[in-house]
Amino acid sequence: MRRRDGVTVAVFVSIFALLAIALAPFVWNVLTSFKDKGEYFTYPPVFVPSSFDLEHYVRGMHLGGAKGIKDSFIIASLTTLLAIALGSLAAYSLSRFRIGGDNFAFWILSVRMMPPIASVLPLFLFFRFLRWLDTYQALIFTYALVNIPFAVWMMKGFFDELPVELEEAALIDGCGRLGAFVRVALPLVAPGLVATALFCFMFSWNEFLFALILGRSRVVPITVNIAGLIGGHEILWAEISAVSIVASIPIIVLAILLQRYLVRGLTLGAVKG
């Protein structure tokens, strides 16, 4: 009994230690967002700021943080909807009709593995020809190209777990193939759909390279806005920390609200191939 208690205590201590290590950068970022300029340049460092006002948060929002969050939310939301709509249809066809053979799904996923720098120049020339540079549609289209292969791979695993007999019963009852997909298959893989959507949203929210190259002044996602706070003569550390904390709130809130579906989705055989 004592040995079992000792093992339990050791496990909990290890968990709390790892949690403290993981949360330390986030806590330091929060504290830095409240520090004055003299406090985050001192040595030894000041851990607790002298005041906890929202001056740096307000300034960070006025320096483009508010617009960056709005632009990122619009782009990430529409990208997620597009990736889920097209990805779920493609994944269903791969799962049920074996289009392209057994290795076609992995080939689709390999597109996601391509380095972004390899495709940013052709996309830049393409969007310049269409006069889409510095527009929402350019970034939405680009992010969808990146996220759809991931959505197809994730959703195919979920559809593979569903018994085909359920859809066959719907077909016998008079549903068409599209009706069986919408009324039977999609509701049953809803947890996986939510998990895939959350990951696509996170990828789009955190993306930097495409946003930097394809955006200019009218469309400035939050990642580019935060990088823009690093000037040639001054680095606004407190404002960078404040804006990054605000930018992390939507992802944290979504993860908390969708936690139940996320856990169920990730345990539904999403990566089974």
Automatic annotation (TrEMBL):
Transmembrane segments: 7-28, 73-92, 104-130, 136-159, 180-205, 235-258
Domain ABC transmembrane type-1: 69-258
Family the entry assigns: Belongs to the binding-protein-dependent transport system permease family. MalFG subfamily.
Protein species of origin: Candidatus Caldatribacterium saccharofermentans
Function comment: Part of the ABC transporter complex MalEFGK involved in maltose/maltodextrin import. Probably responsible for the translocation of the substrate across the membrane.
PROSITE patterns listed in its UniProt record: ABC_TM1 (PS50928)
Name of the molecule in the record: Maltose/maltodextrin transport system permease protein MalG
Keyword Cell membrane among record annotations: yes
PANTHER family: MALTOSE TRANSPORT SYSTEM PERMEASE-RELATED, MALTOSE_MALTODEXTRIN TRANSPORT SYSTEM PERMEASE PROTEIN MALG
Membrane-related topology note: Multi-pass membrane protein
Cellular compartment(s): Cell membrane
